[in-house]
Design brief:
The protein has six helices and 22 strands. By secondary structure, the protein is mainly beta. It is elongated and about 95 Å long. The N and C termini lie far apart (80 Å).
C-alpha cells in the first residue's frame, strides 16, 4: 500500500463530529492491512477508544469531501516579517485589469544586500477579509491574486501586466488566502513590486498583506502619482481616425493643445476598447501660433513624450520633466479608419489644461 496516498489531518471540529469515513477509527475493514498499520504506526484499538481530533484519510477522500485545506505554519521560522492592512475600493482601477494594472494597489519589496547575496527565499501572503455574507455561505465571486514584478531603485509604478520584468504571474482564486514563494536569483531582484489584481472586480475589499523572509527587507510603496490630473474624453470618427505615426494623415488625429507657463513633470495615459491598439504622444510645437496648430505640429513638432509601441486597450508614457512652451497631445490608433471612444488622463506636477484642437 502506498502511504503517500494518505494524510494525517488534525480536525478543528473534533469536539463536534470526527471523520467517520474510510480509515476512521470506526472503519475496521480498511485497517485490516497489518503491513499498513505497522508502516504508519497505527494502533486501531487505542484510536477507537480516544478521539483526539487527528485522523487518517485517503487522498482521494480529501479531494472528494474537502473544498480547501488551511495549513498551519510557524511564522517564527522567518526572522524578518512585515504585515500591513489596507482597503481596495471598487472604484480604484478598471474592473478588468487585463491591460492596465497601474491603478491597482502596489507595494515595493526592497531586499537587503544580505538577502540578495544569500539568495533568500521570500513568502508573500495576501489574505482577503471574509465578509459576513461569505461566512453565511454566500457564493464567493472575489477572485484575487498577486503578481511579482522586478523593479529598480526608482520604484516606478507597474502599468502593464505580464511584461518582460514579471517574475511571478499569480493564479486567481476565490480562496481567502493567496501564498506566493519567490527565491531571489540575482542582484536585479533587490527591488520587487507586489501588484494586487482581481478578476472582474465587483466590490470593495479589505485585505492583509504579510511578507516573510530569512533576511532583512523593507516594504514600501511605489512612487506617488503626480498631484494634478485632468481627464479628456473623445472619439475617433470618419474625419479624424487617421492611423499611426508615419501615416500621411497622422496629424489629423484627435489633438489637444497644452500650454506650459513653467517647467512641469507630465505623464499621459490613454484608455480605449480592447480591440484598438493605441498610442499617445506629446509634441513640442516649437512655435506658438494657435491659428494653425496642426500644420505647425506637422512641420516643426518634436516628440517630447511617447508611449511607444501601439498597445491594445491602454497605453502610458513615462514621467518626464517638460520645459515651458506650447505642446500638442496626439492620440492615434494603429489601424486607420478605426472608430471608437477613448479617454485621456493628463497627470502633472502643476495644474495643466488640455484644449481640443479643431
Amino acid at each position: 500500500m502506498n502511504t503517500s496516498a494518505f494524510e494525517l489531518i488534525p480536525s478543528a471540529t473534533a469536539s463536534l463530529q470526527g471523520w467517520k469515513g474510510r480509515f476512521s477509527p470506526q472503519d475496521s475493514i480498511s485497517w485490516q492491512n497489518t503491513a499498513l498499520r505497522s508502516e504508519i504506526g497505527y494502533d486501531a484499538e487505542l484510536a477507537s477508544k480516544y478521539d483526539d481530533g487527528i485522523f487518517w484519510i485517503s487522498w482521494s477522500d480529501v479531494l472528494r469531501y474537502f473544498q480547501n485545506l488551511q495549513l498551519s505554519w510557524n511564522p517564527a521560522l522567518f526572522s524578518c516579517r512585515v504585515t500591513t492592512h489596507d482597503y481596495w475600493p471598487v472604484s480604484q482601477g478598471p474592473r478588468n485589469d487585463s491591460f492596465n494594472i497601474g491603478e491597482n494597489p502596489q507595494y515595493v519589496l526592497e531586499l537587503s544586500d544580505a538577502a540578495v547575496r544569500k539568495k533568500a527565499t521570500v513568502w508573500i501572503l495576501i489574505s482577503r477579509h471574509v465578509t459576513k455574507q461569505e461566512q453565511d455561505g454566500a457564493e464567493v465571486n472575489d477572485f484575487l491574486t498577486i503578481h511579482l514584478v522586478r523593479n529598480s531603485k526608482q520604484k516606478e509604478r507597474v502599468w502593464y501586466p505580464h511584461g518582460p520584468n514579471t517574475l511571478v504571474n499569480g493564479a486567481y482564486t476565490n480562496n481567502p488566502h493567496v501564498l506566493v514563494r519567490y527565491d531571489v536569483s540575482s542582484p536585479t531582484d533587490q527591488y520587487i513590486s507586489l501588484v494586487l489584481s482581481q478578476h472582474n472586480k465587483s466590490q470593495d475589499m479589505s485585505y492583509t498583506l504579510s511578507c516573510y523572509c530569512t533576511e532583512s527587507f523593507a516594504l514600501g510603496r511605489p512612487e506617488k502619482d503626480l498631484r494634478c490630473t485632468s481627464d479628456v474624453s473623445g472619439r475617433w470618427t470618419a474625419s479624424n481616425a487617421s492611423g499611426p505615426v508615419g501615416n500621411p494623415n497622422f496629424f489629423q488625429n484627435p489633438m489637444y493643445l497644452v500650454d506650459l507657463p513653467r517647467e512641469a513633470t507630465l505623464q499621459l495615459r490613454c484608455s480605449t476598447v480592447k480591440s484598438s491598439a493605441v498610442n499617445i504622444m506629446l509634441v513640442n510645437l516649437q512655435k506658438a501660433d494657435s491659428s494653425n496648430i496642426r500644420s505647425i505640429a506637422k512641420k516643426y513638432g518634436k516628440i517630447a513624450l511617447d508611449s511607444g509601441n501601439y498597445r491594445h486597450g491602454f497605453t502610458v508614457t513615462e514621467r518626464k520633466k517638460i520645459p515651458p512652451g506650447a505642446y500638442a497631445i496626439i492620440v492615434s490608433t494603429f489601424t486607420p479608419g478605426q472608430f471608437g471612444v477613448y479617454s485621456i488622463k493628463l497627470a502633472s506636477s502643476a495644474p495643466v489644461e488640455a484644449r481640443a484642437v479643431p
